[in-house]
What does this fold into?
Amino acid sequence: MSLVLDPAAQDLLFREARTANTFTDEPVTEEQVQAIHDLVKYGPTAFNQSPLRIVLVRSAEARERLIPHMAEGNRAKTASAPLVAILAADNEFHEDLPKLFPHFPQAKDVFFAERPVREQAAALNAALQAAYFIVGVRAAGLAAGPMTGFDFAGVQKEFLDDDHTPLMIVNIGKPGEDASYQRSPRPAYDEVVTTV
Ligand SMILES: Cc1cc2nc3c(=O)[nH]c(=O)nc-3n(C[C@H](O)[C@H](O)[C@H](O)COP(=O)(O)O)c2cc1C
It folds into this structure.
């Protein structure tokens, strides 16, 4: 009774949501992806950096270029998912900071003048946004299949540039037959939380 979110929404986002490995043919529309973005863009990031960038792999030609970079066990599902999204961190996010963090426009130069600092911040904050994105996919009634089993350098070269670091690739769609493995256990509260 401690959670105020509607129990059906709790189930949709977490308890009944599963990582999908197979999908139906039902397409994922541009409108759905926009609705997901328009929701999850409000998830917090440090200085409102918002460094996540998303490449939607929609054409058959692009999909063919992607598959060889996937780990063997990730190829079939990436080939058959209705939509595949490459999630990347923008290491030059600081250029947008004066607009995104108008309370303190100097943040760009004061904190993020150095590339290694930006890379660290972008990796953390884009990963947070990737998590928001996965939950947003679920909020749209779809299933996500996030993957880090791929050749990062190969994907960066093929689809991104030196300023954009791949984070994960996400298959998206309605779950198909036998879409998920048996639910694996999660650590218990006492294993995770200590109080000081
Ligand atoms: C960042 C990330 C990377 C993952 N990489 C892979 C992968 O390369 N291949 C794969 O089959 N599953 C991958 N998974 C799926 C996880 O194993 C799965 O989400 C986890 O076991 C929870 O499954 P459940 O949502 O069905 O409970 C990945 C998940 C995440 C979040």
Remarks:
- The two ends are 25 Å apart (CA to CA).
- The CA atoms of residues 56 and 85 lie 5 Å apart.
- The pocket of flavin mononucleotide is lined by residues 18-19, 74, 146-149, 168, 180, 183-184 (CB under 6 Å).
